[in-house]
Known about the structure:
- By secondary structure, the protein is of the alpha/beta class.
- It has 17 helices and 20 strands.
- It has helices spanning 7-14, 56-61, 86-100, 114-126, 143-148, 169-177, 192-195, 198-205, 207-210, 225-228, 281-297, 301-309, 338-351, 371-383, 395-406, 420-428, 448-455, and strands at 17-19, 28-30, 40-43, 66-69, 79-82, 104-109, 131-132, 157-161, 181-184, 217-221, 236-241, 248-255, 261-267, 270-276, 319-322, 328-332, 357-362, 387-393, 414-417, 436-440.
- The strands form three sheets. It has a nine-stranded mixed sheet, sandwiched between helices.
- Strand 17 (357-362), helix 14 (371-383) and strand 18 (387-393) form a beta-alpha-beta unit.
- Helix 4 (114-126) packs across helix 12 (301-309) and helix 14 packs across helix 15 (395-406).
Amino acid sequence: MIGTWTTGGVAEICGGTLRGEDAVALRAVIIDSREAVPGALFVALEGEKADGADFAGDAVTRGAVAILASRPIEGIAAAQIVVGDPLEALQRLGLENRRRFTGRVAAVTGSTGKTTTRRLVAAVSGASARTLEPQKNYNNHIGVPLTLLELEPAHERAVLELGCSDFGEIALLTRLVLPDVALVTNVGPAHLEKLGSLEGVARAKGELFARLGAAATAVVNLDDPRVAAMPTAGAKVLTYGASARADVRLLERRARGGAGQAVRMRIRDVEIEVELALAGRHNAANAVAAAAAGIALGCTVEDVACGCAAVAAAPGRLFVCRGACGTVVIDDTYNANPSSVGAALEALEEIAPPGRRIAVLADMLELGASSVPAHRGIGRAAACASLRRLVTFGEGGRLLGEAAVDAGLPADAWRHVEGRDEAGAAALEVAEPGDAILIKGSHGMHMDAVVRALRGSEE
């Protein structure tokens, strides 16, 4: 594995040309020169805005002992491996490290909930085995191979997350990860700009199941007909959901406001109750999905209960915290699509009573031709949420607010703002101590700035 690799070995794996010593020991692989450590191999990726080769000198100064790039770099006091495509070489290295890993690997994808579910699966697995999971949001063609390169002999399992915004991306990542266990959380209206329709989303996400080996297990959500209909390429199947036919079944949940919920599930013939610190019905589904994936990995029922209970909400993902003026802030700003906004509004209803709820909602991006009806649909849902105030930001947000008023939200309960700095103030104008303020919007809308403003000195 990477701790035993040398420059000569890496050149052979990548099919590159080595300039310098072939026995230089390598301890890590990095793509950011600022993260260089002694013994690191710096992969100089070529991006639209920057060329990694320009930072090779900085990487060497910080401790890198070898550079992998598409061309020789003059004046560098380190071994160099020249390849045709540094990104492809990085992926080859990740795949090679995965092939040498003898533990079991799970892969999680889906339109919503994949990061939370991946964290839950990793916690369940980690209750009894040393488990690798990405430390950052590494779920694409660069982050996945970097995570695979962190696999060490001491690891017993790994849980990775696969993301996509276009066709073919999940297929590529699946070829790199070679999953023993594969989980698709759901199919929803996300990335429609490129995927076109829910059928397109299902086809893109289904690339995970379609490329499984016969010894692998597909963990199938029976509550989502598009997931349940995905071909599984002859792999073993373990089902989950609220259906009576599910191998791992959600039986009951009891919401506890911002403190989370108790989730009762049956794992084959055993019933357990899991204390979950994550709020919302969708997170109960995520916990059951994680239980199923954990069982497929070889975990016990006790691992499921212990692991799920250990996961706390992360900032940006339905993170409940104290806000200014005694309010409760619900930070769900990591991203947004119609499914996740609907789930967040439902969670808001569980956290605060009618009339004590405020929502600050911004655009849902990358929806293509579905953008207008999607924003109007969320507006109608907001009108039914018994909001004290709805604050909107962005052009999609304006459509959402208009639809909410058309659907019955009192006109004086809606404020549309032109800047993020106005959004927090518009919410606090009417807020009373104990009111819950949900902040949500696509990543590109940068609604985390509103969260920071609302948390103020409470942060």
